[in-house]
Amino acid sequence: MGGVTSRSVVRSAALLSVLAAARSGGTAAPAASDDWPQFRGNPALTGVARSTLPDAPKLLWTYEAGESVESSAAIVAGTVYVGSQGAGLVALDLDDGKRRWQYAVEQGIGESSPAVAGGLVYVGDLGGTLHAVDARTGLRAWTYKTEGEIKSSPVVVGDRVLIGSYDGHLHAVEARTGRPLWKFKTQGPVHATPAVAGGVAYVAGCDEMFRGVRIADGEEVLQLASGAYTGASPALSGGSAYYGTFDSEVLAVDLRARRVSWRYKDPARQFPYYSSPAVAGGRVVVGGRDKRVHAVDARTGAAAWTFATQARVESSPAVVGSRVFVGSSDGRLYALDLARGTRLWEFNAGGALSASPAVAAGRLVIGSQDGRVYCFG
User: Fold this and answer.
1) Which residues pair with 101 in a beta bridge?
2) Is pLDDT above 50 for 104?
3) What span, in angstroms and rounded, lies between the C-alpha atoms of 211 and 247?
């Protein structure tokens, strides 16, 4: 139903209603709990936790998944849900890390991170299938097949699930049944996870475009050239979308004005951004393949600070109060001061940490490429 037009015309009435909500879409509406139900914690993908953590978190438990864990965990009602390339989808007890159930997939789960809503867990696999699994029992509810591998993470919006696929489409399916509702065609793989505000899914693409797609019917309402391939997912805050590109830039897009309001590029080191940003406290914080974590002023795009690790930072940061938690391919999990970028704490996991931290109920959970899942609190 949805499709690409040569120069999409934004319908003014739809845009006004969409962007009014998007201006407040950076932080999720207050919730009854501090769960972390999806990639980046909320549909706006801001990476901001509602929970707290100790000043010096302690390792509470470790789970051996067997093969690489690049999927970022979801934490809901005392259960951790996480995918791995070998074990498929597992549900773990948040208190002690004991496995509650395991759901097998044929080709493994890569970077797709679970989303939990309405008693179901949704996740995509490397074979191109979106799975819906009963959150309590681990039994299959339904599957939906795309025509390419899935590395995008699902986002649940009301009665539908959105998922990107390497088949070049953003798909929308019915949440309870998996019945296809629409699919929107882009000009390249849809690697990123869509960020949602005001009835619109915003996605940065491998086709170098930033798009807004109306969730109700799959129609495009915004199209803007990023100028580069994008693997990162956008974060929405204060009426802007923030994301990094493979042209070594971080962009801010003014959703109302439909233009790029600033571009940040480190003057000394120019490497791609694969990490998805966190937005909090007037900062846009993102990991870079230059082995650094960058913080940029959200209003102006001016550099605030950088923090050097010893390897690529492809993990997406999580903000917990005044701290930023982020993994690095150097095998370390870091806690940094949000305002200044100074190191406050670190843990050496050994294996590369490209998955992103999930934070809920006073715990932080992250998986590593050596097949372990760690829980701190």
Assistant:
1) 91
2) yes
3) 18
Q: Nearest CA to 1 among 255, 215, 155, 154?
A: 215
Look up residue 220 and give its amino acid.
E
How far from 238 is each of 24, 174, 185, 246, CA to CA, in Å?
6, 29, 28, 25
Instruction: Name the strands in the sheet holding 155-157, side by side, starting at the edge strand that comes first in the sequence.
Output: 155-157, 160-164, 169-174, 180-185
Name the CATH superfamily for 12-376: YVTN repeat-like/Quinoprotein amine dehydrogenase (2.130.10.10)
Distance from first CA to last CA of the chain, Å, rounded? 46
Which structure tokens are listed for 130?
């979106």
Q: Which of 140, 100, 146, 99 is nearest to 126 (CA)?
A: 146
Out of 63-72, 88-97, 245-254, 264-273, least confident range: 264-273
> Where exactly are the structural domains of the chain?
12-376
Whole-prediction pTM: 0.91
